[in-house]
Amino acid sequence: MAIVEDTPRELTTGQPAVAERPLGVLTRPTSTEGWKSWLTTVDHKRIGILYGAAAIFFFVVGGIEALLIRLQLARPGATVLGADLYNQVFTMHGVTMIFLVAMPLGAAFANYLIPLQIGTRDVAFPRLNAFSFWCFLAGAIFINTSWFLGGAPDGGWFAYAPNTGVLFSPSNGMDFFAIGLQITGIASLLSAINLIVTVVNLRAPGMTWFRMPVFTWMMLVVQVLLLFAIPVITLALFLLMFDRLWGANFFNVEAGADPLLWEHLFWIFGHPEVYILILPAFGAVSEIIPVFSRKPIFGYKFMIFSGIAIGFMGWGVWAHHMFASGIGPISVAAFSVSTMFIAVPTGVKILNWMATMWGGRLRFTTPMLFAVGLVSMFTIGGLSGVTHSVAPADTQQTDTYYIVAHFHYVVFGGVILGLFGGMYFWWPKVFGYALDDRAGKWNFWLMLIGFNVTFGPMHLLGLQGMSRRIQTYSSGQGFDLWNMVATIGSFMIALSVLVFVGNILQSYRTRNRRPPVGPDPWDGRSLEWATASPTPVHNFDYVPVVESLDDFWHRKWGEDEDGNIVRLATAEQIAQTGERRDVHLPSPSYWPLVVAIGLPIIGYGLIFNYWLCMVGGAIVLGGVYAWIMEPTDDPDAAHGPDGHDDHHDGDGDGNGATTDESEAEELEAPVG
Amino acid sequence: MTTASDSATVEDTVENDEEHEHISDWGYVKVALLLAVITALEVFTYFESVVDWGKALVPALLVMMVIKFGVVVAYFMHLKFDSQVFTRVFVAGLLFAIGVYLAMIMAFGFHPWEIFQE
Amino acid sequence: MLTTGFKLFFGFAVVALVGAAVYGVASGDLSGKDYLGFVDPSSFVGVLSLGWKGGVGDHSGYVVLVFATVSAAYLAFTLVGFRDADPEAVARLGGSGEIPPAAGPTANNVWPAFGAAAAVVLLLGLVTHAAVFVTGLILLAVVAFEWMISAWADRATGDPEANRELRTRIMAPFEIPLLGAAAVAVIVLSASRILLAVSELNAVWIAIGIPIIIVGAAVAIVAMEKPSRGAVVGVLAVGVLAIVVLGIVSAAVGPRSFEHEEEHTDEEALVTEVAR
Amino acid sequence: MKSLAGSRGRLATLVATVMLSAAACGDKPLTTMDSAGEKAAQINDLALWVFAIAGVIFVLVQGMILYSSKRFRVKPPEDPDQERPGGYSDDEFPEQIHGNDVLEWGWTALPALILAVVAVFTVVVIFEQDDVQASGDPLVVEVVGQQWWWEFQYHLDGNTDTPPDIVTANELVMPVGVDIPLRVQSRDVIHSYWIPRLNGKRDAVPGRSHPWVLQANEPGRFMGQCTEFCGLSHAYMRMFTVALSQADYEAWVAEQLVDAEQLSEGDVGYEGQQLFIAQCAECHIIEGVTDRDGDPSNGVDSTDLYVGTAGVDERYTDSLTAGAAPNLTHFMSRETYAGSFFDLYDEDGNVNRAQLEAWVLNAPAEKPNRPDNLQGMRAFLNLTPDQLEQIVDYLETLQ
Amino acid sequence: MEHGDEHHRSTPLSHEKLAMWAFLGSECLLFGGLISTYMLYKNKLPEGTAISPGELFDIPFTSVTTFVLLMSSLTMVLSVSSITRGDLRRNRVWLLTTALLGAVFIGGQVYEFTAFYNEGAGFTTNLWSSAFFTLTGFHGVHVSIGIVMLMSLFIGNLTGRITKASAEKVEIIGLYWHFVDIVWIVIFTIVYLFPQ
Ligand code: HEA
Ligand code: HEA
Ligand code: CUA
Ligand SMILES: [Cu+2]
User: Could you tell me if A471 and A606 lie in one domain?
Assistant: First the structure.
C-alpha cells in the first residue's frame, strides 16, 4: 500500500516526451528474461525457485560442515578440527540446517505452490514477497561471513546464555548469530503475513476452507506459527544483542539475572519452530501419497485438524528441552505430560497416510519412495521423541547422542526426505521436465540407507552415554565402533546428495530428448496440475472455479452407474494452456533488493562501526519510501513498442488497485 | 481500496464491508472521555490517601487496564464493527502471548493468585 | 552506453587513483622504511587497502587524490546510471532521431540559501560545540546532494514538468521521512530540554500545558469555517519557534540538579549521549 | 501395571536385554543402561517400559508400511506406452475410500490412552526423583561447575552457610548406600552434572543452586561427563564419583581434613614448594601452605575464599569467569586431574610424571582453554626443566 | 469478464488491513515477552541498591504523558473519520495534531530517561534498569516510527498525494498508532502503577 501514491503522469506540456526512459536505472524494471530479471522479479514462482536454490546451496554448506563433524568424531582423539573450530562448525551446522535450509526449503514450496493450489495469480504482496527472499538471503550471507570476520558463532544453535555473552564468547560470532537471525526473522515474519493474507483473501471462487489441499492447509498453519514464534526469538536475540553490544544485564548473572530466561524464550520459539520445519514436509507427503495410491487422502478433515492441533499444542511443550535445567518438579511434570500428548495428533497423521496407502494401487515412483520413507523414518524419530518426553528418562538422555539421533530422524527423516520427495514430485511442474526416476531411486535408497547408518547408531551411542557437542572422546569409553559407522553413513548421504545434483544436471541436459511431461504427469489432484508445465508466468489463463476437494481430479474422472470410475476428460483437454498473453501482472521492482541490502549493512555497522549503520539505515529508509512511492507500473512500458496497453486504469473498472502496489508500513515496524 | 467485485462468490461468514459510520466524531469524543475517566481513576490509586484499595489494588488496576484496552480496540480500532477475521488473528496473538508468558513466569515461581497479596 | 562524459570522468578517476597510489608509496615514510623498494610488498598494502592495513606516506596529498578518484568515479557512474548528458541515448530512446535541445532550469533554486545557512551552522559549531559542527556538516552534505540532483533534474529532459517529476521521484523517498523525523526530533529535543530545566513539579505543568495548546489550536482551526492559510501557517510558525527557542535556552541553562549524582559510571552512555 | 506386565513384560525384558548386551560389550563407563544406584534404577525401570511400548509401536508401524507396500504395490504397465500419467492405466482403480470416522476416533483415542498410562507413571517418578533428602548422613556436597572442571565442597554437618570442611576437585568421594544430597551450582556458565550409572543429570546454572542426589549400591568409580555445552573445552570436562565403603569413606574424610605442611629447607619438595608459592599460589590453594593471594604468611584460612574473601586478586572476584583453580591440598589422592581428562597414575600405580610435567609447563597445549580470558590454567613456559621437576616433586608430596 | 477476472477475492477484506492486524497479533508476542521480562526482573534488585523504581518514578508526570498518548488516539480516530468523509483539511489538522502529541509523549520519555540517568539509573546499571529502558525504549521506537508515518501522511496530504481514496491507508496507520497506545496502557499499569 503506497502511503503516497505516485500515479504515472502524462506530460502536461503537450509536447512529446523527449526521452522515453529518462530515469535510466531508476525506472521500474521491465525485463522478464536474463539473469538481471531474477534480481527484480516479484513472481511468486521465481521467488520460490530462488528460495529452493538458496536452500540447496546451504544444504551442501551445512552438509559439508556435518561431514567435518563426522570426520572429527570418526576416531577417538582425532585432530581434524580443534576445539574452537569444532564448536563453530557444529553451531553453524545447526544454524545453517535449521534456519538456512529447512526453513527456506519450506518457504520455497509455500511460495511456489500456495498461489497455484488456491488458484490465484500471485501472492497478496508480490514485492513484499521478493523482499522476504532477499532479506533471508542477506541474513544468511551475513551470518556466514562471520567465518571470515573473526570467527563463526560458537555457542550452539540454541545459544544458551551466559555462555554466549561477551565474557565467555569474546569473538564476534555470537553477534553475527544474533543480528543475522533477526534479519532472517524479518523475512520469515513478512512472508508469513503475506501468505496468510494470500490464503485468506485470494482463494479461487468455490475454494472454501475445506476444499483446500492439505498442503496449503499445513502451510497456513506454519505461517501462523511463524507469525507468533518469530517475535519471541527476535525478542530473545535483542536481549542478547543488548547484553553483548551495550552491556545490558539480561543475562548477567552477577547482577542477579537468571539464565533460564534465555532458555525459556528460546524454546518458546524453538519448539513451535520444529513444527514449522516439519509441517511443510507433512503437507507435501499428504499430496504425494494419494496421487501414487490413486486414492483420495484418508480422513481429510482429521488431517487438517490434527495439523492445526499440532500447531496449537506445539506452544505448550517448550520446557521439555529444559527437563534437566532445574525448573522444578511441577513444571517438569506439566510439560512432560503435555509433550506426550503431541504424539496423538501426529499419530493421526501417520496412521492416515498408512490408511491412504491401504488398499491403494501403490506406484513406487521416486516421490512416493521419499514420502513413504518419511512416514517410516519420522515415526522412529517421533517415538524417540516420546521417550524424551518421559522426563526422568530424559534426564539420562538429554544432551547425549540419543537426542541427536532423535532430531536427525525427525529433521532428516522427516523434513529432508519429505521435501526431497516434494522436489521430485513438483519438478516437472516447475521446470517442465521430470527428474530421472532411475537416478532418483538411487538417490533415495542411498539416502535412506546412509541416513540410517549415520543416525541409527547414534541411539546406541547416546544410551551408552556419549554427550553431544563434544569435540573428542577417549577410546576407553566404548564409542569407537559406532562413531566410525556413523561417519561412514554420513558419506553415503553425501554420495546420495551428489546423485541428486547429478540427476538435476543430467535431466536438464536431456530434457528435450525425453517425452514432454504435459501439464499433469502424475494424474494429480490439485489445481497446480490444471495449468501448463512449466507454470506460465500468469499461472492461469482464467481463474479456475472450484466445486469440490480435489476438483481437478474430479474433472478428469467420474463414476458410471455401477460406481466404476471412468474417465471424463484427459488432463490435456481440461488443463489450461497458459497461452494467454494479455494478463496484467505486477511489474518487477528494484526496491525489495535494495532494502534487503541495507539490513546487513546495519548489522555490520552494529558490530564494527556505527557509521555504517547510518549508511545502511539510509539505504533501508530511502528504499522503503522509494518502494512505497514506486508507480504501480513502469509508466513508459505503457507506450512500449508492442503497443499493448496494460495501463491498469485503462479498462475502466476504476479499480486501480492491483495487489502489488501494496505493502508498506509493516515494513518499518519490524525494523524498529 | 477494497475490491468489492464478485461479491457473489464470497463465501466467508464475514460481515459486509460496506461503509460503517457506526460512530460519529462526537461518539469518539465520548469514548475518549470514558478512557480519560478510567485513567484518572487509575492514577488516583497511586495516591493512597484518596482511596485505600488494600488487597484489591492490583486486581482493580488490571480490570481498569483491560477495560481501557478493550475499549480502544473495539471502538478506536473499529474491531467491534469490522470483520471477524481481524478479530481472530489479533486475539489469537493476544491469547498466545498471555498464555505462553504467563506459563513462563509461573515456571519462574510467580503465582497469579499472588496479585491479591499487596 | 559509454558516453563521452563517462569516459572523461572515468579517465580522471583512473589517473587520480594511480596518482594516489604512486604518491602514497613514493612519499614514503621518513622513518626509513623501504616504501619505494619493490622488495617489500607490505609497502603497497597500506596504499592499496586505503590505509586499512599499513600506512601511506604523505596523508593529505594521498587523501586528496583518493577523494578525487571517488568523486570522479561517482560522477562517471552517475552519468551512465542516469543517462545524463547523453543526448544520443536520449534521442535513440525518444525515437525521433533528433538530438534534443538543451533546456534551462525550470524552478527557483533554493539550495544556495540553505547551503549558506548550513555553512553558518558549521561556523557556529567551530566556536560552540562539536555536535553543532557535525550538524552543520550533515546539513551541508544534504544541501550539496539536493542541489546536485535538482541541477541534474533541471536538464534531464526537455520537458520541465517531467523534470520536476524526476526530482520528486528521486528525492521524495528521502525528503519525506527525513522531514517528518526532523520536525519531530526538533520538538522532542526542545520539549525534553525544557522539562529537564524546570523543577519536577513545573515539568508536570508544562507537560499538561503544551498538549493543551496543541489540541486547542487544532480544535480552533478545525472549528473555523475557512481559516486563512496565512493564519494557520503563522500559528504553526510561532508555536515551533517558541518551543525551539525555549528548548535552546533551557539547554543552555542546563538540567536541574539531581540527588543521586554521585552514582554515575562512565559506561552508561547510551541513554543520554543522544540527549546531551 | 501388573496386568500389563504379563503381556508386555516379556517384551520389555527382550528390549532390555538387547540394549544391555549392546551396552555390555566392551567397557562402557558412561552407559545409562547399567544402573548402579537407586535413582538410576528408578529411571531405567520407567524408561524400559517406555522403550518397550515404543518398540511395539515401531514394529507395528514399520510392519504395516512394509506389508502394504508389498501387498498393494503395482508395477507400471510393461507396454511402451509409458506416458500415462503416473504410469497408471485408465481402468486401474482401487476403491475410493475417503475415511472412516470410527477408525479415526479409534486411533486418536488409543494412543491417548497409552500415553495417559505412561503419563501417570512418569509423573509419579518425577516426584520420586525430586525427593533429594539425605538418608542418615548429614553430609551435603556443593557441586560447583566451572570452565572446565568441577569443584566439590563438603559440608560434613550439612550446613552450607559455613565454609566447607573439605574442598576437592573432579572426583567426588562418597559413602556407598546412602543418599548424598548435592547442591549443583556454577561459577560461570551452565554446565551439567551427570554420573549416568547413578542418576540422571542436573544443570549447574550460575546464580541458582539445584538440589540433586547421588547414591551408589556398590563401591566403585563411576564416570561422568559435563553435558551442557559450556564453551571451548566442554569435551574435556569430565568427572568421577567414587563410592567407598563407610569405613574407607571415613578414612578418606579424616585424611582430607589434615592440612598440608609448610616444608623447610632440606625437606623433599622444599624447592618445589617455594616455586609453587611464587608461581602457582596466585590461583591454587594448598591448605596450610598458601592462600589465594599467594602469601603463605598471612595465615588466612583458605576456605575464606568461598565465602567472599580476604586478599583475592580482584580479577577473580570481579568477573564470573573462571579464576578459581582446583584445591591441591590432597592432589595425589585423586586418580585423575584437569577435568578428569588425564590419569594421574598409570596401570602400575606409578605417577604419570611426563604428562603432569607437560600439564604444568603448558596446560593450554594439553587441554584447550583461554587463560588470557581467565578461562583455565595458563602456561609456565619460563620454568626450567629442573624447576619443573621440583614442582612435580612437590606435587607428589600432596598425598 | 473479457479482461476481467484479474484477481479473485475470496473475502471482501483488504489485504493491507488484514496484514496489519496479523502484524499486530505478532507484536503482542514481542511486547508480551518484554513485559514479562520486566516483571521477572523488577524485583531482582541486589540488596541495598540505592535507586529503586519506586523512588525514581514520577507518577504525576508519567500520568500526564500517558494521557497525552491516549488523547492522540482520539485525534487519530478523528483524522480517519475526516478522511473517510473526504474532508482533507480536517484530516490534515488531526494528522499533524496526532503527530505532535506523539512527539510530546516522546519528549516526555526522553526527559524521563535523562532524569533517571542523571539520578544514577543508566541502561547498564542493574537488571531493573536494563529491563525498564528496553521495554519503554522499544515502545518509544514504535511511537517514533508511528510519528514518521503520520508525518508522511501529512506531507502527502499537503502535496495532494493523499485523497479520499487513500482513506484506508490512514486507517491502517491509525491501527498501528492505536496499538502502540494500548501497549502503553498495559505498560503504564504494570510498570508504573503496580505497587513497587
Ligand atoms: C522436525 C522437527 C521435530 C519434530 C517433528 C519433533 C517431534 C517431537 N519431539 Fe523433538 N526435537 C527436535 C526436532 C523435532 N522434534 C530437535 C531439533 C530437538 C533438539 C534440539 C536441540 O537440543 O538441539 C528436539 C528435542 C526434543 C526433546 C528434548 C530432548 C532433550 O534435549 O532433552 C524432546 C523432549 O521431550 C522432544 C520430543 C518430541 C516429541 C514428543 C515429538 C512429537 O511431535 C513426535 C510425535 C510423533 C510420534 C510419536 C510418532 C508417530 C505416532 C504414532 C505412530 C502414534 C502412536 C504413538 C504413541 C502412542 C507413542 N524433542
Ligand atoms: C535440518 C536439519 C539438519 C540436517 C539435515 C542435518 C544433517 C546432518 N547432521 Fe546435523 N544437526 C542439526 C540439524 C541437522 N543436521 C542440528 C540442529 C544440530 C545441533 C547443533 C547444535 O548442537 O548446536 C545438529 C548436530 C549434528 C551433530 C552433533 C554434533 C555435536 O553435538 O557435536 C552431528 C554429528 O554427527 C550431525 C551430523 C549430521 C549429518 C552427518 C548430517 C547429514 O545428513 C548431512 C547430509 C548432507 C550432506 C552430506 C551434504 C552433501 C554434500 C555434498 C553433496 C557435497 C559433497 C562435497 C564434499 C564431500 C566436499 N549433526
Ligand atoms: Cu561444562 Cu560442559
Ligand atoms: Cu521441542
Answer: no
